[in-house]
What does this fold into?
Amino acid sequence: MGRAPASHQDDRRVDPGGATGKPNGQGKRVTVNNVVFGNHSALRVRRAERDRIRRFYRDVLGCEVGREFDDKDDIRVGDDFWISFLYERGNAREVDEGVTYASEDALSDDDFLKAIFLELKADDVDEMRRKIVDFGVRVLEVPDPHLYFQAPGGQVFRLVGTTEDLSRYEG
It folds into this structure.
C-alpha cells in the first residue's frame, strides 16, 4: 500500500486548537471519556434468602455486614466494594430517598445465570473453593478451569487467585 494523497493526509491532521482526545480523521479531536466500574452494586433478592446471604458473605467470604435495615443489607467485599441486597419495599432511608426495593422484581436464579458474573479473588483459591462448595452453593459447569458458582441471592461469581495471570481473558 502506498501513502495516501496529500489532500487525505491533511484530513488526518489534528487541529491543535481542538478538544483533547483522538483524531477523528477530519482534522478535529474527539473527546474520549474513560470510565471505570464504581465500588457499589445492588441486587434485588428474595427475602427468604436473607439469612443464607448474610451467612455466606460474612462466614464464608469473610465480608463485613455494614448496615442492616428491614429491607436492605449493605455488605462490604474486600476493602472498598459494597453490595446492597434489596429485599422488598420498605421505609426509605435518607441515603436511599426515593428508591423502591421490590423483591417481586428480583431475578429468578435461572435469570441470574444469564446476567453478569463478578470475579472474586482469593489468596488461597483451594481453601476458598472448599469453603464455598461446602456451604452448598450451586456450582456451574463452565468450560474454564475456575470455579463458577451461584451465591445465595442468585449472583454468579468466578473464583480466581489474587496473583493469577488472567491476561488470556483480556482483549
